[in-house]
Amino acid sequence: MSELSVNHLLGIKYLNKQDIELIFETADHFKEVINRSIKKVPTLRDITIANIFFENSTRTKLSFELAEKRLSADVVNFSASQSSVKKGETLIDTVNNILSMKVDMVVMRHPNPGAGVFLSKHVDASIINAGDGAHEHPTQALLDSYSIREKLGSVKGKNIVIVGDILHSRVALSNIFALKLQGANVKVCGPKTLMPKHIESLGVQVETNLKKALEWCDVANMLRVQNERMDISYFPTTREYAQQFGVNKSLLESLNKEIVIMHPGPINRGVEITSDVADSNQSIILEQVENGVAIRMAVIYLLASKIK
Amino acid sequence: MKVLLKSAKIIAPGNKVYHNKKRDILVNDGIIEKIAASITSPKGTSVIERTNLHVSLGWFDSGVCFGEPGFEERETIANGLKVAAKSGFTDILLNPNTHPSPDTSSAIVFLTDKAKNHAVNLFPIGNMSVQGAGENLAELFDMKKAGAVAFYDYKHAITNANLLKIALLYVQNFDGIIFSYPQNAEVRGKGNVDESEVSTRLGLKGIPALAEELQIARDLFILEYTGGKLHIPTLSTAKSVKLVAEAKRKKLDVSCSVPVHHLVFDHSVLEEFDTNFKLSPPLRGKSDQKALIKGLQDGTIDFVTADHTPIDVEQKRVEFDNAAYGSLGLESAFGALNQQLQLEACITLLTKGRERFGIPTPEFKEGATAGLTLFNPEGEYTQTENRLESTSKNSAFLNHTLKGEVYGILNNGQLIL
Hints:
The complex is a heterodimer of chains A (308) and B (417).
Chain A: H1 17-34, E1 48-53, H2 59-70, E2 74-79, H3 82-86, H4 91-99, E3 105-110, H5 115-122, E4 126-132, H6 138-152, E5 159-163, H7 170-181, E6 185-189, E7 205-207, H8 210-216, E8 219-222, H9 238-245, H10 249-253, E9 260-262, H11 275-278, H12 285-304
Helix pairs in contact in A: 1-12, 2-12, 6-7, 6-12
Chain B: E1 2-10, E2 22-28, E3 31-36, E4 45-48, E5 54-57, E6 59-64, H1 77-86, E7 89-94, H2 105-114, E8 121-126, H3 140-146, E9 150-151, H4 161-170, E10 177-179, H5 185-188, E11 193-194, H6 197-202, E12 206-207, H7 209-226, E13 229-232, H8 238-249, E14 254-259, H9 260-264, H10 286-297, E15 303-305, H11 313-316, H12 330-340, H13 343-351, E16 371-382, E17 401-411, E18 414-416
Parallel strand pairs in B: 1-4, 1-5, 6-7, 7-8, 8-9, 10-13, 11-12, 13-14, 14-15
Antiparallel strand pairs in B: 1-2, 2-3, 5-16, 16-17, 17-18
């Protein structure tokens, strides 16, 4: 049986193309499972997973928990605000305390880039990165590519534009790695103030005009503006941001083709996309959420099979 | 105490009599008594014979951190000086990186008292501003009288241009020297590594080279207006080297140093999020690294500093964003520098710079005070935690193979091996 080349899922950049294909094939199977009347399989009855979230999350946490439960794993949840970590306990101590209760796998979200890599070097458990600062969010990128594959047949050769706050976005970074690995053409679009200066070194092109970007692409992945990560104001007002980088129905209709609209959520309706776009037939936002569970089941299953 | 160094190859570039000669050297009560092809050891002499023994004048570093007072868990003065000795350094400037900040003469006296009777001479750098807060000048003259050799708000940018202007004017009455950390705080923002393709891949917040270059350009502009002596303690970018070269052409009284780490490593080492590479200024790209080495060779950059910064494991064994800045440097400085440069150039760099800070330079001749470093330039080793005698173990050079082993020093009449 094929297996992943890695023991942890720390980022897309640590995977190869075969890993992604294997995850997708496995997800195909689990997607069929979760659409059955009995959505649960007994596969991971002997596995205990801790979901450790040092940052707020609704959908990612829920999606992981559902994926774990549908595989029949035992699940414990731990949420900590940064302030409780500041009380003194280090990340290694926090996680080792949880692991001493015989936990096999850790799903972690953390505000610092590289936190998953750091943890994987210091604790004895399989680590899944559920988002680490502006570094990576690998399961989001996997489910995004999986959704494109599902909608358009394949990712290879497709034109994808990622729009918005690229500077603070782990979703953008993981998506760029995943899409490039699968042979897609990638552009990024947004204000220059939210564009990393060296972004083109990742093999993507920068387009500052949204209309041109949309005319070029097959898929537009709209990112949320992450006000909470900004130390200063990178643009004057959200109103002005929306005027330049928001997608609305009339803009979509002005294009000479029908493009696919994606969004990793949560949506700021009226900022990066308007409601009529989010709820339109061109949007696959809810399919992304559904696929998220199948993808996470696949990742957990494949990593669990490497434990021991 | 009598010490006889047997068959020591003398590396003393510029010394026509002894350079590259193999000699026996007899030191009696801290004075070089005799240098000759062969000396019979008088009674009661410690005879030092070592593999490929080389000797040079004692080495000097213009910016070392320990921790005492305030951060003794990082390093104490006593152990720090022992580490310096075993790393070949006979004279060091101590950065004002302690708690409380050394911004008064009594704080300076505390440091010099603590270092008394050691083999290594410690020269404190005082804060430039009260508590290093960058607002008002500290009592610089009083600190200078107490033994401070320079003034520096340690690794904090002087954001107030007028404060730097005033400081550079004020110290001219007593031949003081101001250190200015080259980093514009606003452009740096929350960045903690070099802004580059590596920081982009890793999602780490970048510090543009612009932050350093802008500050240096400003400081040099101010220096041109004020006159006085300015030292830039840590250069890290190619354009910074150009800015300093231009200032020197204009005959401005500016000197600068480069951290040894920046000559050996570039930002690609960050891929594993190893916090021992979290340095300030950050490690830059390969082209910067080349420009720094070239700047050293053509004399634009005056000195190399080990930028020795002990940090306890609690501040390093954490997520990258939460880790403290800095790496040990003293114990690897020679091995690293010796790999980058020819031995003669390496020893020239390690022995120069004292005069810039008003510190007496030892001489290599009979009758002179012995301030000597003993080493083997061919000795290869891998740096490990066990080898490090520093209290903290945060070395960027861990698991790195180095060429150039230090035996120790003979200074202030004491032999430390």
